[in-house]
From TrEMBL:
<comment type="similarity">
    <text>Belongs to the GTP-binding SRP family. SRP54 subfamily.</text>
</comment>
<keyword id="KW-0378">Hydrolase</keyword>
<comment type="subunit">
    <text>Part of the signal recognition particle protein translocation system, which is composed of SRP and FtsY.</text>
</comment>
<keyword id="KW-0963">Cytoplasm</keyword>
<keyword id="KW-0342">GTP-binding</keyword>
<protein>
    <recommendedName>
        <fullName>Signal recognition particle protein</fullName>
        <ecNumber>3.6.5.4</ecNumber>
    </recommendedName>
</protein>
<keyword id="KW-0733">Signal recognition particle</keyword>
<comment type="function">
    <text>Involved in targeting and insertion of nascent membrane proteins into the cytoplasmic membrane. Binds to the hydrophobic signal sequence of the ribosome-nascent chain (RNC) as it emerges from the ribosomes. The SRP-RNC complex is then targeted to the cytoplasmic membrane where it interacts with the SRP receptor FtsY.</text>
</comment>
<keyword id="KW-0547">Nucleotide-binding</keyword>
<keyword id="KW-0694">RNA-binding</keyword>
<feature type="domain" description="SRP54-type proteins GTP-binding">
    <location>
        <begin position="269"/>
        <end position="282"/>
    </location>
</feature>
<feature type="binding site">
    <location>
        <begin position="190"/>
        <end position="194"/>
    </location>
    <ligand>
        <name>GTP</name>
    </ligand>
</feature>
<keyword id="KW-0687">Ribonucleoprotein</keyword>
<feature type="binding site">
    <location>
        <begin position="108"/>
        <end position="115"/>
    </location>
    <ligand>
        <name>GTP</name>
    </ligand>
</feature>
<feature type="binding site">
    <location>
        <begin position="248"/>
        <end position="251"/>
    </location>
    <ligand>
        <name>GTP</name>
    </ligand>
</feature>
Length: 296
């Protein structure tokens, strides 16, 4: 299960503190040490950990918590709020156009689960918003990527616009015209992913962005890569001004370092979580629910 190891460690620290009737500063220091170690083990970015522990400590010591009623529970609430805060506090959805075609461009490194996420997002939007969705296959460097999207499209009964391996910008331009002419509500564009961020890939994405003028640029980040996901997100955001992240493979992530670092480091809100290989293993990312899941 997602966050299992982080969860059990943090819960242990919380149980210890709620088990005490009275708390003093040493108890808080001990708990903070445990929290810090849990976050380190979860592969959370150091800057995030520092801010997290400073905030918790300041609040726990600063508001007459220790002399108040149920100090332990109040401290747990402070930790909970801080977990929620680092994951973005509020749920952020897709900004749909009030009328006409909403364009969503997806970006991400190869293997992060971008194609899978496109399928899931398309099915999700169709189901929850009752919108007519279409895909554009513009990952032109791997023929397999187009095939994979075509297969998904067939499986989900979602139309895939493709022209083979010609210039991505041309495919996107023609695909968007097709979508408008055929009165689609939402188009999701697949773009080239590489194993590493490189200047050529970024330039192509910038060019596609220019043509598509997307309402959303969603970045897929692999939860299994821990805090690296956050620095990758930061690079993408600097170049493309991304509007949201889809955190993928959350089902395999017991640590949580990616989910807890992405927002703070890259400023990108996590909008969705992909948590399995099945097409319906996809959900809106709720910071509050995630924090509850972690603290149990
Ligand atoms: P892309 O190269 O970014 O388009 O990545 P793919 O969508 O092809 O996914 C790469 C691999 O990760 C495939 O084997 C997927 O089945 C798998 N995958 C994608 N999303 C998830 C997920 O949320 N959970 C799990 N467990 N596997 C996933």
């Amino acid at each position: 299960m997602a966050f299992d190891s982080l969860s059990s460690r943090l819960q242990m620290a919380m149980r210890r503190i709620t088990g005490k009737g009275k708390l003093n500063e040493t108890d808080i220091d001990e708990m903070m040490r445990e929290v810090r170690l849990s976050l380190l083990e979860a592969d959370v970015n150091l800057k995030v950990i520092r801010q997290f522990t400073n905030n918790v400590k300041e609040k726990a010591l600063g508001q007459k918590i220790l002399s108040g009623l149920n100090p332990g529970q109040q401290v747990v609430k402070i930790v909970f709020d801080e977990l929620k805060r680092v994951m973005g506090d509020e749920t952020v959805g897709i900004s749909y156009k009030a009328s006409g075609l909403t364009t969503i461009m997806t970006v991400g490194l190869q293997g992060t689960g971008k194609t899978t996420a496109i399928g899931k997002l398309g099915a999700f939007i169709r189901k929850t918003e009752k919108k007519k969705v279409m895909f554009i296959a513009a990952d032109i460097y791997r023929p397999a990527a187009i095939d994979q999207l075509m297969t998904l499209g067939k499986q989900l009964d979602i139309f895939v616009y493709q022209e083979g391996l010609i210039k991505a910008q041309t495919i996107v331009k023609n695909g968007l015209k097709y979508a408008k002419d055929n009165l689609y509500d939402v188009v999701i564009i697949d773009t080239a992913g590489r194993l590493n961020i490189d200047a050529e890939m970024m330039q192509e994405l910038i060019d596609v962005k220019e043509i598509a003028k997307p309402d959303e640029i969603l970045l897929t980040v692999d939860a299994m890569t821990g805090q690296v996901a956050a620095t990758v997100a930061q690079s993408f955001h600097e170049q493309l001004n991304t509007t949201g992240a889809i955190i993928t493979k959350l089902d395999g992530d017991t640590r949580g370092g990616a989910a807890l670092s992405i927002r703070e480091i890259s400023q990108i809100p996590i909008k969705f979580a992909s948590n399995g290989e099945k097409m319906d293993a996809f959900e809106v990312f709720h910071p509050e629910r995630m924090a509850s899941r972690i603290l149990g």
